[in-house]
Amino acid sequence: MSKLDIAMIIYIIFMIVATFVSFKYGSTMIKKKGLFLPSTLIAGTINLVLGVFAILVWVFFTWGVNEFLFFGGLVLGSGLLVVGEAVLLTTLFLKRKKWIHIYNETFN
């Protein structure tokens, strides 16, 4: 494996881990505080910031290497960022009632 292959694998894994970290934050805060919208907005922002950070690192890494790798990584990163945000928001919305119910049970 070349260092470009390893960099691509790390790039993809980082984008996926960013979505999981955001999901974990959102689910924990909804269960703990019962506030859905603020927790969802913060989780989405965390995912967005980590994704943009990964894309910027990719830009600096591939700037002088290969233009096809540069643009392909930008497209891949943008796609993963959009899909990650969609998956994050969808799962948070689908599990919202369950987590708010858990929050309400802690005070009863």
The main β sheet shows up as:
none
What are the low-pLDDT stretches, counting only 5+ consecutive residues below 50?
none
- The termini sit apart by 56 Å
In helices, the fraction of residues equals over 70%
> Based on CA inertia axes, which overall geometry fits?
elongated
Count of DSSP-assigned helices: 4
Keywords, separated by commas or semicolons:
mainly alpha, 108 residues, elongated, single chain
Describe the protein.
The protein is mainly α and 108 residues long. The chain is built from four helices and no strands. It has helices spanning 3-33, 36-62, 67-94, 96-106. The chain starts with a helix and ends with a helix.
Question: Outline of this structure?
Answer:
Keywords: Membrane, Transmembrane, Transmembrane helix. This protein is an all-alpha fold and 108 residues long.
Give the topology.
Layout: H1 3-33, H2 36-62, H3 67-94, H4 96-106
Helix pairs in contact: 1-2, 1-3, 1-4, 2-3
